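Q: I'm writing a short explainer about Dual specificity protein phosphatase family protein for a general audience and would like to include a description of its predicted shape. Could you first generate the structure from this sequence?
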Amino acid sequence: MDLASPRYNRPKLSRIVENVAPYGVDIFISGMEGASDVALLRENGISTVVNCAVNLDFNYVTEPAVEANQSQIGHGAGAIRYYKLGLIDGPGNPETMMLAGYYLLQGAFSQILPERPSYPRRERGNVLVNCRGGRSRSVTLVALFLHHAMPEMFPTLDIALDHVRTRRQLRPDEWFEAPKPMLIASARKASEWISRIDAETGGGKLA
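A: Of course. Here's the predicted structure. Afterward I'll give you a sentence or two in plain language.
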């Protein structure tokens, strides 16, 4: 049985925390199947997707400015606001990539787009973080984010990790590799940096 399969004892989407403070929206995790189901995303009020996987991409374009052809890749406005962080599910990531992912996810929650035609997806709904299976890269990043965004509820990274694993319905017998240990180690290092940056800057959070 393939434990990495998104079909293995997990829903397509998992709501991890409701009403993430101070943003007032929910955070979800999924694998590729949930992130690619636009109807399901809309049913759950998800307006924003943060894709953690370097080996997985999505085409959400619904209003192409240029149609795809043999010489040019199509591009244009999409049904979903889409952010990409290209993490490897294992060794090979620079330590700073997890730190970058934290601030990317913070931006996905707090960024306020201008009211101009070139920014058609301005709604601020729920946020989905995904990777291929929704069990390692996305779990690590969401745990790191929750630990720092909601420290009263998640005072340590380990408490945040256990909460995310449980809400994502990861089996206890796969926790040793879900998330991958080197990703957790990277999150611990990123957490130290975030604490130092917050102490020096006051956090820089936007409601």
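A: For your explainer, you could say: DSSP finds six helices and seven strands in the chain.
Q: Perfect, that's easy to follow.
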